[in-house]
Design a protein that fits this description.
alpha/beta, Nucleotidyltransferase, domain 5, five-stranded mixed β-sheet, 10 helices, 36% helix, 20% strand
């Protein structure tokens, strides 16, 4: 069966047509502009492939949010309040189904990536896994004994408030429009830009930003560790591509947990807090997983 997996991000939409992660037939990237423009381009790509003989049967949409992922909700598929212009109140799921003329399975981008990592990546064969993505925003999701935390809604791990020093609080109030210095307001690419005036890619390895970002993400990992005790924590997203950042997070995790353990797996922080096994494709393979799993379980 061939399906399309879609990673609908706030900056771009990535699409693949595939049978499995190892059998990707086509891929493309579309900039995220307005809902109508972006979704028309995505549906156009799918329609073109089908007209050329690639029999795509279903779509899996792993979307940025917040988005209503509860199929029983009256507002199913709607994007909630987002700083992305034009997207608040849009329903990319319905628009895509209509424009492509195919059934579409929806979940959040982070849930999608988590499920793909659990099926094929760094969380393979584990039933309790947390996934954090650090990009323009910070999203988090987890399974506990195979069930998604927050279902049928979704959790928002990135908006927990970390502890800070008084000195640091005086320097920067945080960039989250809702909470100021939540984890997203301190460690996302948006926060880095707001505080230092440069994108994460522009900062040198020894910049003062990295220990601060690492500590915020370590605190998020500690919170997840003590709240739900997953078997592994996976950290992905554009900001995590910085070499050495994950080592700093692991070191701070060890310091902050200070030997108080809830799982023996966490004794080895370098195997407990890890990069995605699927690399930069975790998001789009999340979309692939959603469509394939729905077909397997008879949802489409
Ligand atoms: Zn926040």
């Amino acid at each position: 069966m061939i399906v399309a997996g879609i990673d609908a991000g706030g900056t771009s939409w990535k699409l693949i047509a595939a049978k499995s992660p190892g059998d990707i037939l086509a891929r493309t990237t579309i900039p995220t502009t307005t809902p109508t423009e972006t979704i028309s381009a995505a549906a156009g790509w799918i329609r073109k492939l089908r007209s050329e003989g690639c029999p795509i049967e279903a779509l899996g949409l792993a979307s940025f949010g917040p988005i209503d992922r509860n199929p029983k909700s009256k507002t199913y598929g709607l994007i909630g309040a987002t700083p992305k212009p034009g997207w608040t109140g849009a329903n990319p799921h319905q628009m895509l189904e209509d424009a492509a003329g195919l059934p579409c399975i929806l979940d959040t981008d982070v849930n999608g990536a988590l499920l793909a990592e659990t099926m094929w990546g760094a969380g393979k064969d584990l039933s309790s896994v947390a996934y954090i993505t650090v990009g323009a925003g910070i999203g988090g999701a987890a399974t506990v004994a195979g069930n998604l935390v927050g279902a049928p809604e979704h959790a928002e791990f990135g908006h927990i408030k970390p502890a800070r020093t008084d000195d640091d609080r005086q320097v920067f109030a945080g960039s989250c429009p809702y909470h100021g210095d939540c984890i997203e307001g301190l460690a996302s690419a948006t926060a880095i830009n707001a505080r230092w005036g440069l994108s994460p890619e522009q900062l040198p390895d020894d910049h003062e930003a990295w220990p601060i970002v690492a500590d915020a993400l370590a605190q998020l990992s500690v919170s997840i560790f003590y709240l739900i005790a997953p078997q592994r924590i996976i950290l992905g997203g554009g900001v995590m591509k910085r070499a050495g950042l994950i080592d700093k997070i692991q070191a701070r995790f060890v310091e902050r947990t200070n030997g108080y353990r809830v799982r023996p797996e966490a004794d080895h922080a370098d195997a407990y807090i890890v990069a995605p096994g699927l690399g930069g494709d975790a998001g789009v393979l999340g979309g692939l997983y959603l469509a394939l799993n729905a077909a397997r379980t008879g949802q489409t």
